[in-house]
Design brief:
The chain is mainly α and about 110 residues long. The chain has one domain. It is built from 5 helices and no strands. Helix 2 runs antiparallel to helix 3 and helix 2 runs parallel beside helix 4. The relative contact order is 0.21.
Length: about 110
Amino acid sequence: MTEKYWRIFAVIAAVGCLSVFLKWQYASGYVLGCIVSVITYKILERFCHNALKARNSSGTLGHFMINFGIWAAVLALCAVFDQYFNVIACAIGLTAVKLSIIIGSILYRD
């Protein structure tokens, strides 16, 4: 992702953090989802770089199972500690990086 896309992500994250005025659990779930979204994106970026460098896509299934496992663990954590995190807000936060890529590709058609 280029700097433009990270700016879009920052705006999306900031708008989501405004949910603190509704209920603080919404904001904490959203922030947790955004953090994990960035982490899983960085893992994906590193995996793609290594796969292209090696010209080998072995380990793809394991990689995606790890990413989805991380997502599932975070959502389970939110479900167990629902007094601190909102599950729906966390799920929306988990899609923040993908949403910023989609919005950026619509806005910056080069």
